[in-house]
Write a structure and sequence with these properties.
It is a single chain. 36% of the residues lie in helices and 19% in strands. The termini are far apart. The protein has two domains: 3-108, Ubiquitin-like (UB roll) (Roll), CATH 3.10.20; 118-436, Creatine Kinase, Chain A, domain 2, CATH 3.30.590.10. A hairpin with a 5-residue loop joins strand 9 (184-189) and strand 10 (195-200). The chain is globular and about 65 Å long. Strands 7, 8, 9, 10, 11, 12, 13, 14 and 15 form a nine-stranded mixed sheet that branches. The protein has 446 residues and is of the alpha+beta class. Bound molecules: glutamic acid and magnesium ion. Glutamic acid (GLU) binds at residues 137, 241-244, 301, 307-308, 319, 337.
Length: 446
């Protein structure tokens, strides 16, 4: 769609306010709403945001040592017409996702959407296209007057009761997504209390990211309207299942017609190309986990025995493995399972594709598949089998990212350095806090 076509479409849809959205390094959707006389500017020149916005952490404080500050000026958010969708739940409003550009219109290396574009082109140069689906899990809560969070229900995993209890909300979510061009594969009740999960149809990388971001915003907005808090936090309570973001990927020929990553025989789940892609994912697993699971809380989800991966390994059917190969025939693909919804999906997908490409280029062979529940192994048993653990903390994960030349090169120097500063600043704040657990254990015992 060119500018004239998108402007025509906005008129047809009677859009009076266009939300121009970019995503910061914490994955937050950040936006300004603009009226029609600014629509052409959104697509031609872009609208300004402070460059320093990317250096704010989730506390909404600037990370110490930020490269960008009060005096480093602005970047331009240029709407990508391909990402346009109306917002059926908001009167006369629509949204576009934006590329961040420098003030002279040139590429800005701090833009996550641009970094993904580079990575997709690197695959295209090798005659490869990518099919992706993001599968988020999330939980519904309400907040009591005392400020406690209570889960929405106790319905069992994938029960009809669980699907039916809040069906008015899910129906509205599914209808809204359909109007916004997001096709779901399925939506159902997950394992934990108040926990749900949806799978959008796998598609090209940009549409996959756009669809996932749309899903998250729609669920949060419509749940809020219905009196619920939809939370995508990785591990709200230690005794309940965590919420992951599993990324489903496969590699196809240039026309997107022939699956090149999977094996042609049922007993051979991956092709040679797929095996090397997998080898790359496993070789860079620690750095990938920093990008995909980037908050303190993420590491309370990634525990053995929780169906969230804790070891660097792969398996065909095993939900304890970091990479699983689900599906049969043309639906077969690779599923990377350590990420969660605290990530910026552009950055996470860029990192995953960079790791896979490194595997292809270096012809990295993966180790043998695991066939048992590795989550049930003791640390000694895992070590004896040569199974490395994923990073056990955000600190460890960020150090692994710093040490990974492939993943950091794909993200580029601006995103890498500022992401690490932002995340380390949250970690410092966490470390300086005295948590309720400490008072419970130590106040009287010491
Ligand atoms: N909730 C699990 C996770 O945190 C995944 C459960 C599943 O296999 O769907 O990754
Ligand atoms: Mg699930």
């Amino acid at each position: 769609m060119n500018t004239a076509e998108i402007l025509q479409r906005l008129t047809e849809d009677n859009i009076q306010y266009l939300w121009v959205i970019y995503h910061d390094y914490s994955g937050r959707s950040c936006a300004k709403a603009v009226p029609p006389h600014r629509f052409a500017t959104v697509f031609e020149r872009g609208i300004v945001f402070a460059r320093a916005n990317v250096d704010f952490n989730l506390l909404d404080h600037m990370a110490p040592g930020s490269a960008f500050t009060a005096e480093t000026g602005d970047v331009l958010a240029v709407g990508d017409p391909a990402s346009y969708a109306p917002l059926p739940y908001r009167q006369a409003s629509g949204r576009v996702h934006a590329f961040l550009r420098d003030m002279d219109g040139s590429e800005w290396p701090g833009c996550p959407r641009t970094r993904l574009d580079h990575m997709v082109r690197a695959y295209a140069q090798r005659g490869l296209t990518i099919r992706v689906g993001f599968e988020p899990e999330f939980m519904l809560f309400r907040r009591t007057e005392e400020g406690e969070y209570v889960t929405s229900d106790r319905d069992g995993m994938f029960t009809v009761a669980g699907l039916d209890r809040h069906y008015a909300l899910w129906l509205e979510v599914m209808e809204t997504l359909k109007t916004m061009g997001v096709q779901l594969e399925q939506l159902g009740k997950e394992y934990g209390p108040g926990q749900y999960e949806a799978t959008p149809v796998s598609t090209g990388p940009f549409k996959a990211v756009d669809d996932y971001l749309t899903f998250k915003e729609v669920v949060r907005a419509l749940a809020r309207q219905a009196g619920w808090i939809a939370s995508f936090m990785p591990k709200p309570y230690a005794h309940m299942p965590g919420s992951g973001l599993h990324v489903h990927m496969s590699l196809w020929d240039a026309e997107g017609k022939r699956d090149l990553s999977c094996g042609e025989r049922p007993e051979e789940p991956l092709s040679q190309l797929g095996r090397h892609f997998l080898g790359g994912l496993l070789a860079h697993a620690a750095a990938l986990t920093a990008v995909g699971a980037p908050i303190v809380n993420s590491y309370k989800r990634l525990l053995p025995g929780s169906w969230s991966p804790a070891h660097i390994c792969w398996g065909v059917g095993s939900r304890a493995a970091l990479v699983r190969i689900p599906g049969m025939g043309a639906r077969r693909h690779l599923e990377f399972r350590s990420g969660d919804n605290a990530c910026n999906p552009y950055m996470f997908l860029t990192a995953l594709l960079a790791a896979g490409l490194d595997g292809i280029e270096q012809q990295i062979e993966p180790p043998p598949a695991v066939t048992d529940d590795v989550g049930a192994l003791t640390d000694e048993q895992a070590r004896a089998r040569g199974l490395a653990l994923l990073p056990r903390s955000l600190d460890e994960a960020l150090s692994a990212l710093e040490a990974d030349p492939v993943v950091t090169a794909a993200l580029g120097p601006v995103i890498t350095s500022e992401f690490i500063k932002v995340k380390r600043s949250e970690l410092t704040d966490y470390n300086l806090h005295v948590h309720p657990w400490e008072r419970h254990l130590y106040l009287e015992s010491i």
